[in-house]
Amino acid sequence: MLKKELIKKQQEALFRVDTLPVESKKKTFSVQCEVARGAMEAYVKVIAVDRECGITEFDIISKIFKKGVRINIFYDQITDIVENRRINEKILIAEGFAPEDGTDAEITPLVELEEFMTPEMAKNFPGQRIVTGVEVDLDQPVLEKKPATPGVPGYTVRGRRIKPKAGADLQFEYGNNLRISEDGLSLISAMPGLAGLSNGVVEVRDHDYDEWRYEVKFRKNNMEAALAIIPGIRKQPDHDEAFFHGLLAQHGIQFGIEPMLHRRVPSRIFNTTVIKIASGEPPLTGPSAKIKELFKDGAQENQILFKVARDQLIVEKTPPGKGVRGRNVLDEPVPAPEGSDIELVAGDNTRLSDDGLKLFSTIDGYVSRMKDAYCVVECMEIEKKTVPGRKIDYPGIVHVRGNVAAGSAIVAGHHILVDGDIQSAEVIAGGKLRVDGYVRNCVKSKVQSGGDMYLGGVEKSRLLAGGSIYLHDGASQVQLISGANVMSMNGNKCFIAGGRVVAAGDVELQIFGSMPPARTSIEAGVPFAVRVRFEHSAQEFVHLVNSHAAITKQIAALRSRAKVSKISREEALMYKKLIMAFDVLSEKTKLRGAKVKKAREAVEKMSLPFRVAAYDKVNPGVFIKVGGYSERIESTVRKCIFRIDTEKKKIVRTKI
């Protein structure tokens, strides 16, 4: 502020010079002005032959003003040059103000601070003075900070401001029970106690911090009690049986007390030690409810049709049982939860008993389970084979005792059983589908089921199952989409040769691929719809990346032409359009990349428990996919399991 006032007064003084200028044609001198040392100094020199050259203060001032000199002009020096006729002499006529750097902040202790004594120090250096800190009151300042100063700016002779270097600030480093004052200049105690240093950092402790402390903590809803022994500086007290009896009684601990508790305490304690002193008796959960499907008594493996009579008991439920209550360490009873329950749902043509534990059939028919509900439905029997071109739409079960002819269509609300083959026909089952023979040439027609599929074999067909797909022989040139697993039936030597298998769960067969190789893709761990969305997003991302790279290349070519001024008007317009397209594509690529990354993480998590198992071999040319990771088999692999390794981010093999 003082320097600004001085500058103002110096500039005002300029206009009080009364000397009249010498006419140009009569001048026998010249004035030179030089600005040096980074514009921090200005010099003048009057060049003349005769000392009586007629130089005036105005001549000198006008010259230095033309050079831009405005700050800290030595007007007395100008007067001296004129009065004493100082010619042909280089004279300092103005000098700038150097900046003054700010001072660093300083933190000063207001009380004498020493390092707190620790049990380890007392042990290793016996007989020394025990330091317990300096007593301080609530809100008493412990440290004081002298703030850093910003410094004083400087100015060149031309008036340019020179920024000073500000002083460095310091932050308070402190531990427990201290806080910074509102003005930020003091560190004050947040409680009355003892102030000292812990590993060089100031903190405030309780007055009795050096005493041994004992904290009993209850955990797991009072099912467990633990004692934390925090050593003090003084000598370790005796932790005998009487001490623990008093401690347990003080906290009301009566049950599950650890035997010979006093002997579990170490003879010398130097750090906080935690020991369990009591454990409750946890309650036992009751048995869960069970559903017994009585209609399956005596059933054969993979049997689908179960015939029942009217008023026959078909399903019986065992309700959840009561558990055994426990006790916590306070000797309080802990109630036991009942076992988990299962709802017995009555579907079409069934009735529940009044207690909801028994399910009876109300008609003669066959049992079918649809969406967790047990139904009894009638079965349509078709002898030998279906008529070519015939359309069947039946709400119950359909049983074809032969082949399904080409051009036929069967839609059933529940199960469909075919004793023979399905050839170029449409078969849709609301429940399970069982085909003892082969499904052939059903690429354009639909063959699907809401539940599991049991198939003798498949050739050149597309099948969709809401549940698992079980194969007796194998499949060639097919697309199998399963909502669960794809497995061999009864451990048969089953194969997949050519085509695509997509399973939401595991794929476990004997042989994958064929010799010579036919393209075969085995994909496990992700439902078909999720996999399609994920792959579509990944393809879009790759397309965006390629488009982005192509536009970047075009922009680079046009930019290089623009630099050498060889770009036409049409190319300039194209350049602007490409820049706009580049910005849009950059944002789209960023968003799509984040979406694909998130989808990949979800797919990886979803597919983590699943695998592809080849119990015999995998032929070359087979693609194995688990989740979002894939591997192409280059040479024959025998008896191997493929699964995801999340750390290595790839598919790994394990020998069976």
Describe the protein's topology.
Blueprint: H1 2-14, E1 29-36, E2 41-48, H2 57-66, H3 75-83, E3 91-95, E4 106-109, H4 119-124, E5 134-136, E6 141-146, E7 154-155, E8 161-162, E9 178-180, E10 186-189, E11 193-198, E12 201-205, E13 213-219, E14 224-230, H5 241-250, E15 273-279, E16 290-293, E17 307-308, E18 313-318, E19 326-327, E20 333-334, E21 345-346, E22 350-352, E23 358-361, E24 365-370, E25 373-377, E26 379-385, E27 391-394, E28 397-403, E29 409-412, E30 416-418, E31 422-423, E32 426-429, E33 433-449, E34 453-465, E35 469-482, E36 486-488, E37 495-503, E38 507-512, E39 520-524, H6 528-563, H7 569-607, E40 612-618, E41 622-626, E42 629-632, E43 637-645, E44 650-655
Parallel strand pairs: 21-25, 26-28, 27-29, 28-30, 29-32, 30-33, 31-33, 32-33, 33-34, 34-35, 35-36, 35-37, 36-38, 37-38, 37-39, 38-40, 39-41
Antiparallel strand pairs: 1-2, 2-3, 4-6, 5-11, 6-10, 7-8, 9-10, 11-12, 13-14, 14-15, 16-18, 17-24, 18-23, 19-20, 22-23, 24-25, 40-43, 41-42, 43-44
Helix pairs in contact: 6-7
Keywords:
single chain, 656 residues, alpha/beta, 4-stranded antiparallel beta sheet, 44 strands, 37% strand
3D architecture notes:
This protein is an alpha/beta fold and 656 residues long. The protein has a 19-stranded mixed beta sheet that branches. A 4-stranded antiparallel beta sheet has the order 4-6-10-9, with no helix packed on it. β1 (29-36) and β2 form a beta hairpin. α6 packs antiparallel against α7. The model is unreliable at 14-20 (pLDDT under 50).
Shape: flat
Helix proportion: 10-25%
Main beta sheet: 19 strands, mixed
Rounded to an integer, what's the Rg over CA atoms? 47 Å
**Overall mean pLDDT:** 88
Spans of at least 5 consecutive residues with low confidence: 14-20
Structural class: alpha/beta
N-end to C-end Cα span: 87 Å
Total beta strand runs: 44
Strand content: 35-45%
Q: Number of helix segments? A: 7
